[in-house]
Amino acid sequence: MVVSQVTNHASRVTLHESRFTSHEQTMSRETLTLSPELYEYLLAVSLREPELLRRLREETGRDPMARMQIAPEQGQFMGLLVELMGARQVLEVGVFTGYSALCVARALPADGYMVACDISEAWTSIARRYWQEAGLAEKIELRLAPALETLDALLEEEREGQFDFAFIDADKENYSAYYERCLRLLRPGGLIAVDNTLWGGDVINADDKSADTEAIRSFNRMLQTDERVTLSLVPIGDGLTLARKRG
Ligand SMILES: C[S@@+](CC[C@H](N)C(=O)[O-])C[C@H]1O[C@@H](n2cnc3c(N)ncnc32)[C@H](O)[C@@H]1O
Questions:
Q1: Which atom of ligand 1 is closest in space to residue 167's alpha carbon?
Q2: Domains of the chain (ranges plus CATH)?
């Protein structure tokens, strides 16, 4: 009896292994490169973009700077993170037309609250229109000023250690400065998400010595050894670095 159980188990293992063998060429211990078709599939089976966000994406698509907007699956992922954390107070550095802010604000609880930083009246007027339509305008405090000034003001307002989540997606040369301030504003266990850390692949393009690219490279290098946080660079969108503040 025991022998036959072992035999059955062994044959189940063999069957299981043979299934693996048939995927030998495709299974990988590295992150998969997405072909356009596989990316379409990923969206088809997992994206749940509400109609309002789709309309915002389409309207932004007519702006010459539309490429600045995050990918919809990234917005959905950030909403999931915020929901998982039960985040209540959040920060955004770089609003543009408001897509990422809307993804995050939708995931906040009833008493949730966002401070959103940008310098553009024109782009954020689009954002405000959509936040209003979503019924979330009350939750989002837009501060129109250079983000460093806003973050310093929050520190002066004694908001240190109060925020649960921060999303950094503005001018790249200030990334390190935004990160340092956000780290102070976050509670222990809070999460900073930093956009564009793969920078369209240019982080490894030796010919690209532009200030933005160098800033992202040096930010990435600094973070790799920053013991104040737990780290992961998630290859979603243009690269999203997650840094959780240690206690
Ligand atoms: C990449 S876009 C943000 C995209 C946005 N997160 C989204 O998903 O649609 C960058 C934004 O940063 C803003 N920005 C640039 N420099 C800034 C600064 N010094 N302070 C605050 N915002 C700034 C720009 O006006 C622009 O709206």
A1: 6
A2: 52-245 (3.40.50.150)
